[in-house]
Design a protein that fits this description.
The chain has 397 residues and is mainly beta. The protein has five helices and 21 strands. It has helices at 4-15, 25-45, 112-124, 237-243, 371-375; strands at 52-56, 60-63, 72-76, 81-88, 91-96, 101-105, 109-110, 132-136, 140-142, 154-156, 161-171, 210-218, 223-227, 231-233, 247-259, 263-273, 283-292, 297-317, 320-328, 335-344, 347-357. The strands form five sheets. Strands 15-16-17-18-19-20-21 form a seven-stranded antiparallel β-sheet, covered by helices on one side. The protein has a five-stranded antiparallel β-sheet with strand order 6-5-4-1-7. A five-stranded antiparallel β-sheet has the order 13-12-11-8-14. Strand 18 and strand 19 form a beta hairpin. The radius of gyration is 29 Å and the shape is elongated. The chain starts with a helix and ends in a 22-residue tail after the last helix.
Length: 397
Protein backbone atom coordinates (compact mmCIF):
# COMPACT_ATOMS: atom_id res chain seq x y z
CA UNK A 1 0.00 0.00 0.00
CA UNK A 2 1.29 3.45 -0.87
CA UNK A 3 1.93 5.58 2.21
CA UNK A 4 -0.01 8.76 2.85
CA UNK A 5 3.02 10.96 2.14
CA UNK A 6 3.64 9.30 -1.25
CA UNK A 7 -0.05 9.53 -2.13
CA UNK A 8 -0.03 13.25 -1.29
CA UNK A 9 3.08 13.78 -3.39
CA UNK A 10 1.54 12.00 -6.39
CA UNK A 11 -1.65 14.04 -5.98
CA UNK A 12 0.30 17.31 -5.99
CA UNK A 13 2.28 16.24 -9.05
CA UNK A 14 -0.94 15.29 -10.86
CA UNK A 15 -2.57 18.57 -9.86
CA UNK A 16 0.38 20.53 -11.20
CA UNK A 17 0.14 18.66 -14.49
CA UNK A 18 3.68 17.34 -14.20
CA UNK A 19 2.65 13.85 -15.34
CA UNK A 20 1.73 14.07 -19.06
CA UNK A 21 -1.29 11.78 -19.02
CA UNK A 22 -3.95 14.27 -20.14
CA UNK A 23 -6.95 12.65 -21.77
CA UNK A 24 -7.16 9.84 -19.27
CA UNK A 25 -10.66 10.08 -17.73
CA UNK A 26 -9.61 8.14 -14.61
CA UNK A 27 -6.78 10.56 -13.86
CA UNK A 28 -9.08 13.56 -14.31
CA UNK A 29 -11.50 12.03 -11.82
CA UNK A 30 -8.72 11.33 -9.31
CA UNK A 31 -7.39 14.87 -9.78
CA UNK A 32 -10.81 16.40 -9.12
CA UNK A 33 -11.35 14.28 -6.01
CA UNK A 34 -7.90 15.17 -4.63
CA UNK A 35 -8.50 18.86 -5.26
CA UNK A 36 -11.76 18.68 -3.32
CA UNK A 37 -10.11 16.84 -0.41
CA UNK A 38 -7.23 19.33 -0.23
CA UNK A 39 -9.63 22.29 -0.32
CA UNK A 40 -11.63 20.78 2.53
CA UNK A 41 -8.45 20.19 4.55
CA UNK A 42 -7.17 23.75 4.01
CA UNK A 43 -10.58 25.16 4.89
CA UNK A 44 -10.71 23.18 8.15
CA UNK A 45 -7.12 24.04 9.18
CA UNK A 46 -7.62 27.81 8.88
CA UNK A 47 -10.21 29.22 11.24
CA UNK A 48 -12.02 32.31 10.02
CA UNK A 49 -11.09 35.43 11.99
CA UNK A 50 -13.71 36.47 14.50
CA UNK A 51 -14.00 40.28 14.87
CA UNK A 52 -13.55 41.41 18.48
CA UNK A 53 -12.62 44.34 20.67
CA UNK A 54 -9.01 45.18 21.44
CA UNK A 55 -6.76 47.81 22.95
CA UNK A 56 -3.42 49.39 22.08
CA UNK A 57 -0.85 48.54 24.75
CA UNK A 58 1.40 51.49 23.87
CA UNK A 59 1.49 54.48 21.54
CA UNK A 60 1.46 53.28 17.93
CA UNK A 61 0.70 54.15 14.31
CA UNK A 62 -2.44 53.18 12.40
CA UNK A 63 -1.17 52.43 8.87
CA UNK A 64 -2.90 52.70 5.49
CA UNK A 65 -1.82 49.16 4.55
CA UNK A 66 -0.29 46.17 6.35
CA UNK A 67 3.22 47.51 5.97
CA UNK A 68 5.47 49.49 8.32
CA UNK A 69 6.49 51.76 5.43
CA UNK A 70 2.94 52.61 4.40
CA UNK A 71 1.27 55.96 5.12
CA UNK A 72 0.29 56.62 8.74
CA UNK A 73 -3.44 57.24 8.94
CA UNK A 74 -3.40 58.31 12.57
CA UNK A 75 -1.20 58.11 15.67
CA UNK A 76 -3.00 56.25 18.46
CA UNK A 77 -2.19 56.81 22.14
CA UNK A 78 -1.73 53.90 24.53
CA UNK A 79 -4.90 52.17 25.74
CA UNK A 80 -7.00 53.28 22.77
CA UNK A 81 -10.13 51.14 22.45
CA UNK A 82 -10.30 49.56 18.97
CA UNK A 83 -12.34 46.97 17.09
CA UNK A 84 -10.33 44.25 15.34
CA UNK A 85 -11.97 43.56 11.98
CA UNK A 86 -9.56 41.06 10.42
CA UNK A 87 -6.02 39.71 10.61
CA UNK A 88 -3.61 39.60 7.69
CA UNK A 89 -0.36 37.87 8.62
CA UNK A 90 1.24 39.86 11.43
CA UNK A 91 -1.23 42.76 11.10
CA UNK A 92 -4.71 43.52 12.33
CA UNK A 93 -7.19 45.54 10.32
CA UNK A 94 -8.67 47.75 13.01
CA UNK A 95 -11.29 50.44 13.42
CA UNK A 96 -11.25 53.15 16.08
CA UNK A 97 -14.35 54.42 17.86
CA UNK A 98 -14.35 57.58 15.75
CA UNK A 99 -14.46 55.53 12.53
CA UNK A 100 -10.82 55.61 11.45
CA UNK A 101 -9.74 52.36 9.84
CA UNK A 102 -6.30 51.00 9.06
CA UNK A 103 -3.72 48.39 10.05
CA UNK A 104 -1.90 47.77 13.34
CA UNK A 105 1.13 45.60 14.00
CA UNK A 106 -0.02 42.67 16.19
CA UNK A 107 2.72 43.52 18.72
CA UNK A 108 0.90 46.66 19.85
CA UNK A 109 -2.53 45.05 20.25
CA UNK A 110 -4.03 43.43 23.34
CA UNK A 111 -7.27 41.50 23.68
CA UNK A 112 -9.99 41.16 26.29
CA UNK A 113 -7.65 39.99 29.06
CA UNK A 114 -5.43 43.04 28.58
CA UNK A 115 -8.48 45.34 28.57
CA UNK A 116 -9.52 43.81 31.91
CA UNK A 117 -5.96 44.18 33.28
CA UNK A 118 -5.70 47.87 32.41
CA UNK A 119 -9.09 48.59 33.95
CA UNK A 120 -8.19 46.71 37.15
CA UNK A 121 -4.86 48.53 37.42
CA UNK A 122 -6.49 51.94 37.06
CA UNK A 123 -9.15 50.98 39.58
CA UNK A 124 -6.50 49.77 42.05
CA UNK A 125 -5.12 53.30 42.57
CA UNK A 126 -8.45 55.11 42.78
CA UNK A 127 -8.62 57.16 45.98
CA UNK A 128 -4.93 56.55 46.80
CA UNK A 129 -2.64 59.59 46.67
CA UNK A 130 0.71 59.21 44.91
CA UNK A 131 3.36 58.11 47.40
CA UNK A 132 6.29 59.55 45.46
CA UNK A 133 7.23 61.05 42.11
CA UNK A 134 10.30 60.43 40.02
CA UNK A 135 11.84 59.50 36.68
CA UNK A 136 13.38 56.40 35.15
CA UNK A 137 17.14 56.68 35.55
CA UNK A 138 17.81 54.15 32.78
CA UNK A 139 15.83 52.08 30.30
CA UNK A 140 13.09 50.27 32.20
CA UNK A 141 10.69 47.47 31.31
CA UNK A 142 7.03 48.34 31.89
CA UNK A 143 4.71 45.42 32.70
CA UNK A 144 1.10 44.85 33.69
CA UNK A 145 2.15 42.34 36.36
CA UNK A 146 5.19 42.38 38.71
CA UNK A 147 7.77 39.72 37.85
CA UNK A 148 10.49 39.09 35.29
CA UNK A 149 8.49 36.17 33.87
CA UNK A 150 5.66 38.41 32.67
CA UNK A 151 5.58 40.00 29.20
CA UNK A 152 7.12 43.42 28.65
CA UNK A 153 4.55 45.92 27.40
CA UNK A 154 7.09 48.59 26.56
CA UNK A 155 10.70 49.54 27.25
CA UNK A 156 10.51 53.01 28.79
CA UNK A 157 13.30 55.46 27.99
CA UNK A 158 15.46 57.11 30.63
CA UNK A 159 13.86 60.25 32.03
CA UNK A 160 10.25 59.00 31.86
CA UNK A 161 8.18 60.60 34.63
CA UNK A 162 6.11 58.48 36.99
CA UNK A 163 4.01 58.53 40.15
CA UNK A 164 4.51 55.64 42.59
CA UNK A 165 1.60 54.00 44.46
CA UNK A 166 2.73 50.64 45.80
CA UNK A 167 5.80 48.50 46.50
CA UNK A 168 5.65 44.78 45.60
CA UNK A 169 8.23 42.06 46.35
CA UNK A 170 8.38 38.92 44.19
CA UNK A 171 10.57 35.83 44.14
CA UNK A 172 13.25 36.08 41.49
CA UNK A 173 13.05 33.34 38.82
CA UNK A 174 15.80 30.73 38.89
CA UNK A 175 19.02 31.91 37.27
CA UNK A 176 19.64 30.48 33.81
CA UNK A 177 23.03 29.19 32.73
CA UNK A 178 24.95 30.28 29.69
CA UNK A 179 24.01 33.93 30.06
CA UNK A 180 25.94 36.79 28.56
CA UNK A 181 27.02 39.19 31.30
CA UNK A 182 26.19 42.88 31.08
CA UNK A 183 27.50 45.68 33.30
CA UNK A 184 25.33 46.38 36.32
CA UNK A 185 22.70 49.04 35.68
CA UNK A 186 22.50 48.49 31.91
CA UNK A 187 19.56 46.11 32.11
CA UNK A 188 15.91 47.24 31.83
CA UNK A 189 15.08 45.00 34.81
CA UNK A 190 18.11 45.97 36.87
CA UNK A 191 21.15 43.91 37.89
CA UNK A 192 21.32 40.17 37.50
CA UNK A 193 21.34 37.84 40.50
CA UNK A 194 25.07 37.36 39.95
CA UNK A 195 25.78 41.04 40.49
CA UNK A 196 28.25 43.17 38.57
CA UNK A 197 31.19 40.81 38.95
CA UNK A 198 29.48 37.89 37.20
CA UNK A 199 30.21 35.64 40.19
CA UNK A 200 27.54 33.16 41.29
CA UNK A 201 24.85 34.61 43.52
CA UNK A 202 25.31 34.12 47.25
CA UNK A 203 22.51 31.76 48.36
CA UNK A 204 22.48 33.41 51.81
CA UNK A 205 21.94 36.88 50.34
CA UNK A 206 18.23 37.79 50.33
CA UNK A 207 18.75 40.30 47.51
CA UNK A 208 19.67 37.43 45.18
CA UNK A 209 16.32 35.73 45.79
CA UNK A 210 13.77 38.48 45.26
CA UNK A 211 12.93 41.50 43.17
CA UNK A 212 11.25 44.71 44.27
CA UNK A 213 8.78 46.48 41.98
CA UNK A 214 6.86 49.73 42.12
CA UNK A 215 3.32 50.09 40.88
CA UNK A 216 3.52 53.33 38.91
CA UNK A 217 1.42 55.60 36.76
CA UNK A 218 3.45 57.01 33.91
CA UNK A 219 2.87 60.39 32.29
CA UNK A 220 0.45 59.08 29.64
CA UNK A 221 -1.86 57.67 32.35
CA UNK A 222 -1.00 53.97 32.08
CA UNK A 223 -0.60 51.98 35.31
CA UNK A 224 1.83 49.08 35.61
CA UNK A 225 4.98 47.80 37.28
CA UNK A 226 8.66 48.76 36.92
CA UNK A 227 11.70 47.28 38.64
CA UNK A 228 12.82 49.68 41.41
CA UNK A 229 16.50 49.59 40.41
CA UNK A 230 15.67 51.65 37.32
CA UNK A 231 13.68 54.38 39.10
CA UNK A 232 14.90 57.56 40.76
CA UNK A 233 12.54 59.33 43.18
CA UNK A 234 12.63 63.14 42.99
CA UNK A 235 11.67 64.63 46.38
CA UNK A 236 12.07 68.38 46.72
CA UNK A 237 15.39 69.81 47.85
CA UNK A 238 14.14 70.62 51.36
CA UNK A 239 13.41 66.92 51.98
CA UNK A 240 16.71 65.84 50.44
CA UNK A 241 18.68 68.31 52.58
CA UNK A 242 17.10 67.01 55.78
CA UNK A 243 16.96 63.27 55.05
CA UNK A 244 19.38 62.71 52.16
CA UNK A 245 21.49 60.36 54.29
CA UNK A 246 18.58 57.88 54.13
CA UNK A 247 16.81 56.24 51.19
CA UNK A 248 13.62 58.25 50.78
CA UNK A 249 10.76 55.93 49.85
CA UNK A 250 7.67 58.11 50.02
CA UNK A 251 6.49 61.57 51.05
CA UNK A 252 3.10 63.18 51.47
CA UNK A 253 2.13 66.83 52.14
CA UNK A 254 0.30 67.35 55.45
CA UNK A 255 -1.16 70.82 55.60
CA UNK A 256 0.91 73.99 55.36
CA UNK A 257 2.52 76.58 57.62
CA UNK A 258 1.73 80.23 56.94
CA UNK A 259 4.88 82.33 56.88
CA UNK A 260 4.35 86.10 56.63
CA UNK A 261 7.62 86.45 54.71
CA UNK A 262 7.58 83.45 52.34
CA UNK A 263 3.90 82.58 52.19
CA UNK A 264 2.38 79.16 52.84
CA UNK A 265 4.92 76.32 53.01
CA UNK A 266 3.94 72.65 52.84
CA UNK A 267 4.73 70.28 55.68
CA UNK A 268 5.56 66.64 54.85
CA UNK A 269 5.45 63.18 56.35
CA UNK A 270 8.39 61.23 54.90
CA UNK A 271 9.01 57.46 54.87
CA UNK A 272 12.61 56.23 54.71
CA UNK A 273 14.85 53.18 55.04
CA UNK A 274 18.61 52.97 55.63
CA UNK A 275 20.60 52.87 52.42
CA UNK A 276 21.81 49.46 51.28
CA UNK A 277 19.55 47.46 53.57
CA UNK A 278 16.41 45.41 52.96
CA UNK A 279 14.16 45.92 55.98
CA UNK A 280 11.54 43.33 55.04
CA UNK A 281 8.86 46.04 54.88
CA UNK A 282 8.25 49.18 52.82
CA UNK A 283 9.89 51.59 55.27
CA UNK A 284 11.34 51.62 58.80
CA UNK A 285 11.45 55.31 59.62
CA UNK A 286 8.72 57.94 59.57
CA UNK A 287 9.61 61.63 59.92
CA UNK A 288 7.62 64.84 59.99
CA UNK A 289 9.16 67.84 58.23
CA UNK A 290 7.60 71.19 59.11
CA UNK A 291 8.40 74.71 58.06
CA UNK A 292 10.00 76.88 60.73
CA UNK A 293 8.96 80.53 60.51
CA UNK A 294 11.96 81.45 62.66
CA UNK A 295 14.68 79.48 60.87
CA UNK A 296 13.03 79.95 57.44
CA UNK A 297 13.62 76.33 56.54
CA UNK A 298 12.32 72.81 57.00
CA UNK A 299 13.11 71.16 60.32
CA UNK A 300 12.87 67.46 61.08
CA UNK A 301 10.98 66.16 64.06
CA UNK A 302 8.88 63.28 65.32
CA UNK A 303 11.15 60.38 64.22
CA UNK A 304 9.32 57.06 64.49
CA UNK A 305 10.65 53.52 64.11
CA UNK A 306 8.02 51.42 62.36
CA UNK A 307 7.58 48.41 60.08
CA UNK A 308 5.64 50.49 57.61
CA UNK A 309 3.52 49.37 54.69
CA UNK A 310 2.48 51.72 51.90
CA UNK A 311 0.31 53.59 51.15
CA UNK A 312 0.31 56.60 53.46
CA UNK A 313 -3.10 58.21 52.99
CA UNK A 314 -4.84 61.49 53.78
CA UNK A 315 -6.74 61.96 57.02
CA UNK A 316 -8.61 64.82 58.65
CA UNK A 317 -9.81 65.23 62.22
CA UNK A 318 -11.96 68.11 63.40
CA UNK A 319 -11.00 70.03 60.30
CA UNK A 320 -7.28 69.62 60.88
CA UNK A 321 -4.95 67.91 58.38
CA UNK A 322 -3.35 64.61 59.16
CA UNK A 323 -2.41 61.24 57.68
CA UNK A 324 -2.97 57.51 58.12
CA UNK A 325 -0.19 54.91 58.09
CA UNK A 326 -0.11 51.12 58.17
CA UNK A 327 2.46 48.85 59.74
CA UNK A 328 3.00 45.13 60.17
CA UNK A 329 1.29 43.61 63.19
CA UNK A 330 3.91 42.36 65.68
CA UNK A 331 1.98 39.14 66.43
CA UNK A 332 -0.49 38.46 63.61
CA UNK A 333 0.78 37.74 60.12
CA UNK A 334 -2.60 38.35 58.48
CA UNK A 335 -3.16 41.72 60.15
CA UNK A 336 -1.90 45.30 59.89
CA UNK A 337 -2.13 48.14 62.38
CA UNK A 338 -3.80 51.24 60.94
CA UNK A 339 -3.00 54.43 62.84
CA UNK A 340 -4.45 57.91 62.25
CA UNK A 341 -2.50 61.06 63.12
CA UNK A 342 -3.37 64.75 63.06
CA UNK A 343 -1.12 67.83 62.86
CA UNK A 344 -2.21 70.34 65.45
CA UNK A 345 -0.40 73.18 67.22
CA UNK A 346 2.84 72.35 65.46
CA UNK A 347 2.82 68.79 66.77
CA UNK A 348 1.77 65.32 65.55
CA UNK A 349 -0.88 63.66 67.69
CA UNK A 350 -2.26 60.12 67.46
CA UNK A 351 -6.05 60.09 67.03
CA UNK A 352 -6.86 56.38 66.84
CA UNK A 353 -5.45 52.94 66.11
CA UNK A 354 -7.05 49.70 64.93
CA UNK A 355 -6.29 46.26 63.53
CA UNK A 356 -7.17 45.65 59.89
CA UNK A 357 -6.86 42.63 57.62
CA UNK A 358 -4.20 42.62 54.94
CA UNK A 359 -6.01 43.50 51.70
CA UNK A 360 -6.33 40.57 49.34
CA UNK A 361 -5.05 41.05 45.84
CA UNK A 362 -7.76 40.58 43.19
CA UNK A 363 -7.36 37.50 41.04
CA UNK A 364 -6.11 38.36 37.55
CA UNK A 365 -8.62 37.95 34.72
CA UNK A 366 -8.90 34.34 33.58
CA UNK A 367 -10.31 32.61 30.55
CA UNK A 368 -10.98 28.93 29.90
CA UNK A 369 -7.28 28.11 29.42
CA UNK A 370 -5.31 26.55 32.23
CA UNK A 371 -2.88 28.56 34.38
CA UNK A 372 0.26 27.46 32.55
CA UNK A 373 -0.99 28.40 29.10
CA UNK A 374 -2.51 31.63 30.42
CA UNK A 375 0.89 32.72 31.74
CA UNK A 376 2.72 31.81 28.54
CA UNK A 377 1.09 31.22 25.18
CA UNK A 378 -2.30 32.73 25.95
CA UNK A 379 -0.63 35.94 27.04
CA UNK A 380 0.84 36.38 23.58
CA UNK A 381 -0.82 37.66 20.46
CA UNK A 382 -2.70 35.06 18.42
CA UNK A 383 -5.70 34.79 16.10
CA UNK A 384 -7.68 32.92 18.74
CA UNK A 385 -6.86 35.17 21.70
CA UNK A 386 -4.89 38.36 20.99
CA UNK A 387 -3.26 39.35 24.27
CA UNK A 388 0.05 40.94 25.16
CA UNK A 389 2.51 41.30 22.30
CA UNK A 390 5.59 39.21 21.71
CA UNK A 391 8.58 41.21 22.96
CA UNK A 392 12.29 40.42 23.06
CA UNK A 393 13.18 39.18 26.52
CA UNK A 394 15.61 41.44 28.37
CA UNK A 395 15.00 40.00 31.82
CA UNK A 396 18.10 37.89 32.17
CA UNK A 397 21.59 39.32 31.99
Amino acid sequence: MISNNIAKTIAIIVMLGLIPIAGCQEVKTIKREMENKLKQKWTKSKKPFEPRDGITVRECNLHQTANQNSEVVHKLPAETQIHLVDRIGEWYRARTRDGREGYLDHKVVGGEEVIAMTRELRKSIEGIPPQAEGVTKSKANFRFEPGRQYPVVEELPAGKKFEMYERVVTARPAQKTGRVHRPQGSHPDGPSPAGSSGAPADPTDDSSKKDVWYKVKIDDGRVGYVYTHNLRPTPNQEIVRELGHLRIVAWRPVGATDDPDTGAQNNYVVACVPKGKDPGCDYTGLYFLSWSTKAKKMVTGWPQKVSGVLPITNFQFEGRPGFSMRQLHPNKRDKLILTHFVHSGGKIRKVSEEEISIPKKPDPPRDSTDEASRRTGAMRGSDENPQLPDRPEHDEE
